[in-house]
């Protein structure tokens, strides 16, 4: 008989739960001999009372709650066992199956030894594609580590003398292997499985597999690979063992499946112990043994534990337990867990005691500082060590709404500035050499300037030097290939009049005149030579002119050259120039820099937002260590803090008076720091002496630091102090000192660069440790009080008040508490300080936000100590960000609800720091509602939350773009003037964004997005135009930037930004983007009409894969909601043949018939014909009276074809017509910049009196209001709107589109459809055949709040989208909720719509290329969807969407073909404003 019987039961059969029942009889125990295990857990000697394990989910906390001790109850375990696990043959052993991955399964079968054969272990893996190897070893009874057996199968290789690798034999998709074990000393076979081709390891729950060979004599050897159903383990013991496993693994947050696995793993460990012969009661004693406690004794109290026999006293145990609790992040401990923690603390102390540490030494070691007092305070306030939450007050979130918007004006627009001769010269060179300008810098020459400008047109480097100095100058110069090198220039580079010297050249400046201003200049041209730069000095007679004592140097390597600054637009140029002029003085010390900044504050304020941005950029460059902090100047710390105090006082005054600048002012103040109160600056100087005296450390590094502090203290001193504290804490590990310095930006070179350099490393004695930690900690408070604007502890102390009671530190200092603080605010500050380092960050963030909201009314007031309140708010804001970043690791397996809650907290924090936060507030309201929907298990909660995730991303993107717009130009301009590192300038704005909570919020959104898409069944793609294509991958930043390009081969564009109104370039076969243009946007329609694959990808990993494969050939095969993509290794050229722009066969040719003036300037709807107006007007006329009565059609008149040409030919416009003809001739020869000039010229047309009279008559006859009745200025608005429609014929997008199809642009005529605007509640677009799937039985539509321009124009965000089956128009299905942040609304007005003869032609869809212009400007409104019945009222939504679908169906029935329909909803009534055939 075969000794091996395969166990083929499914794995889930081994995970059936056991049922625990109360019973008065003891559990019976039977032994078995087959079990599967991972390495056994370590034992636990003492376990408290527990409720059934996993009765609730972990969620990061202990899973045990409630009262009572289940160990004291009489339990009977009723085991539900798999059937037929054991064979009848006692010589055979069973096996277990393991899931290796989704498809593959491992089965291990053991055959006991017989007289003829040794023990055999069979391994079989099914459903594998590659070749597998068993990586294995054995553990002997006498040696508890991996060993190599003396015998192993043929083909086995020894791996690094540490393991064996035996290949499996593969037949089909099954791999098998047999091991024979003939050594009686082998106790365990341990193994992993390796797929060598994939370099993939298979493990068991992250650990090695083990086969235990249990000894009872070799011939009766027992083995274990799978759970024996005949061994019964009481459930209470399984609970305890599972808890201990959870503790050992760091109290992880488990999913329900992981909880289940952990529970069963605990059971298997206990089965192993029982199968080794341990009785159940002995096992119980081992797990639950506790010392006896006398009834009623003090030790029974919950915050005390019984003294250990070794003599460890209870007070020491309490302190050790407190230390453990703090290290764990102050988690919430229930009473049971509290008792366990006490016992764990006792064990730790006992271990130290057993090693020989005396009780006195133990006491001295752990009872440092005020730890004992902290423990007593904790136990006095709370019975257990727990982390309770503050109770946030109920508030209307609208209370924190801000609408303060700073108007950003170019300095040039507010004042007329006469350009200098050097500015004019630079502008001339820019125009001459264009985009090739690489580098531009101005150097100060006393009271004159030197311009250096480098260009590289046609690969030839040109260097221009010019000065406004009147005295004759000589340029003494050379070339270099490396630093400090001087080389004679080649003769080809020497300007006329030069004199060659031994290692250099001298060239005289040549005088010139520009706009009545004199200058001197030199031009040097360098062709090749691989030169790195030009060193030079200037000579005026016998006087040498240098750059602050050094040679000037011009970078020529374009890899290191910064981008030349712009023309001064978007910056406070005069202020930045002045800062650059004063930088040499500012470099002397922080006192000088802060004093100069204070002096410039008024000028900055006068320059508005951009002026304050200039101060921020300068201070940030300082904080980034890009500017010199101290240069040959000795200044007292109190002088620095006094200057700092003056600057921050001035910033506080602007904060009071100019609320629109508060966001920028907060950034400046956070960069500068608080300044001194109570002579805090001088204390920096005095207290370092106290540290040296108290701790006997007067020489070496401490003395060098002392000298540096006396000479010029700086924010670096905070870093140095922290590095010293870290060094002392690490028991004087010098590598910790350097690591701490380096991670905060201080290198050895920087220490040596100080005027009073720090050469030495710290060196202390061990007996100095306690005193140094105490005194350095106290000193840190003083340093942060001056230098750290965002330090929480010092900010709270300043606001709450303090009086120094520490010897030698803060002597005589008493800061009074701020008056008028909210009730309970001091307690809130104590809560924050107590929990500021907790690992469980939610309670801390709640406290921080509660404090910020409580502070807000005071921050909006003119409080006498407003500055201190601002610094406190800055510190609270900063702490929110650091807390969230610290809590990231807890979010790896977080449920969506937890992520949403944290997103809400961070969004609130960002809103509190933002001047214009209306969009953020409405996002926050949406998240709050999505959380409520989630709790109510609404089946659309994830779809709703996804819309607000998209909107929040748009808000963050908009904020980042705003920062870049206002900050980056100033950073680039000032950075160029001050020679700041180009890399630091390039990431200036990015680093500011990263330093705020917006970056943390973005990271949380990134984590939540895939979870929401999974719940909402959205997938990774939204396919807008499903076309199967092949092409070469091309990466672009914006589709707009390449829309006029022609690709010569089939191209898949991966575009970071797609706005919605772009054209698709020739040769493009697909556009993939992370952006979310509407399905019915212009670019979406273009893609479908042109048979271009177009899709939004929500998965960054997929997009990154395409980016990595730029230039490679890919195949895309879309479905309705996915794209299958693959790289094409080889293809014939014709498969993806190049697109030839000039090939007339490749592009359609469209013919237009020129339209002529009919003699009428205006016609009514009854006169709309093919010869008079376009399809847009004719379709509206056709619908009138034919659609159902509940569908409204607006009244219309039109300016027919030919009116524009007639107006242009009128004598009053004769001069304009002449200039327009000249511009059109330029356009014909390829001068495309003439398009803008043509549009400007058209806007100057005057209106013939006949046009005005006819238009007025037709509008009034049709019942439309005449704009002129409200005043002449109203008619002028209408006339300007008409001209803008005509001018849109020459917009770039339309012009190049006609060129692509060889349409004669002169034959394109523009009628103007005139309609009264319906002041819409909602606007919609309908496609009566689903454009994404092509399903003609399904209507697809999109709806927006307000006017439809946000839907058809390039407005960010998505509309509400839905589909509706034509057979069931009462049941629309929402596909996505809206994320558009802006709605457009307008009062009663007139709209003038473009209606050309080039729209909806076969082979050319001109719809959407030309402008429709309302007479009045629309009002932009930030949308609150939580207040919108379309979003919040399901019945209203269903009714409205059904009505829209029915209107679309009715119009399609009228035309008998699919239609593209635009309309609006007003007071529940549907209006259709235009329809056209769906393309």
Note the main attributes of this structure.
1479 residues; alpha+beta; eight-stranded antiparallel sheet; seven-stranded mixed sheet; 49 strands; 38% helix; globular
Task: Put the structure in a nutshell.
The protein is an alpha+beta fold and 1479 residues long. It contains 42 helices and 49 strands.
How does this structure look, described?
- The chain has 1479 residues and is of the alpha+beta class.
- It has 42 helices and 49 strands.
- A hairpin with a 2-residue loop joins strand 24 (533-540) and strand 25.
- Mean pLDDT is 81; it is low at 1-92, 216-230, 290-310, 409-415 and 1131-1148.
Helix segment count? 42
Q: Which band does the percent of strand residues land in?
A: 15-25%
Summarize the main sheet.
8 strands, antiparallel
**Rg over CA atoms:** 40 Å
The backbone outline, from C-alpha atoms, is: globular
Q: What fraction, in percent, of the residue positions are helical?
A: 25-40%
Helical/strand content category: alpha+beta
Oligomeric grouping of the chains: single chain
Number of strands: 49
Given as residue ranges, the uncertain stretches (5+ residues, pLDDT < 50) are: 1-92, 216-230, 290-310, 409-415, 1131-1148
Mean pLDDT over all positions: 81
How far apart the termini lie comes to: 76 Å
Topology:
Blueprint: E1 19-22, E2 75-78, E3 96-99, E4 105-111, E5 119-126, E6 132-140, E7 143-147, E8 157-159, E9 163-167, E10 169-171, E11 174-181, E12 186-195, E13 200-202, E14 209-214, E15 222-224, H1 235-248, H2 256-275, H3 280-288, H4 314-327, H5 335-354, H6 359-366, H7 371-381, H8 411-414, H9 421-433, E16 437-445, E17 448-455, E18 461-467, E19 474-477, E20 499-500, E21 505-508, E22 510-514, E23 517-526, E24 533-540, E25 543-545, E26 552-555, H10 573-586, H11 590-606, H12 609-623, H13 637-657, H14 662-672, H15 680-695, H16 700-711, H17 716-729, H18 734-743, H19 748-753, H20 769-787, H21 792-800, E27 802-803, E28 814-815, H22 825-835, H23 842-859, H24 866-886, H25 896-912, H26 918-935, H27 941-977, H28 982-986, H29 988-994, H30 997-1015, E29 1021-1025, E30 1029-1038, E31 1046-1057, E32 1066-1073, H31 1082-1089, E33 1093-1097, H32 1100-1108, E34 1113-1118, E35 1123-1127, E36 1163-1164, H33 1175-1183, E37 1191-1192, E38 1196-1199, H34 1203-1209, H35 1214-1228, H36 1234-1242, H37 1249-1261, H38 1272-1287, H39 1292-1300, E39 1310-1316, E40 1322-1327, E41 1338-1345, ...
Parallel strand pairs: 30-31, 31-32, 32-33, 37-49
Antiparallel strand pairs: 1-2, 3-4, 4-5, 5-11, 6-7, 6-9, 6-12, 8-9, 10-11, 12-13, 12-14, 14-15, 16-17, 17-18, 18-23, 19-21, 19-24, 20-21, 22-23, 24-25, 24-26, 27-28, 29-33, 30-34, 34-35, 36-38, 38-39, 39-45, 40-41, 40-48, 41-42, 42-43, 44-47, 45-46, 48-49
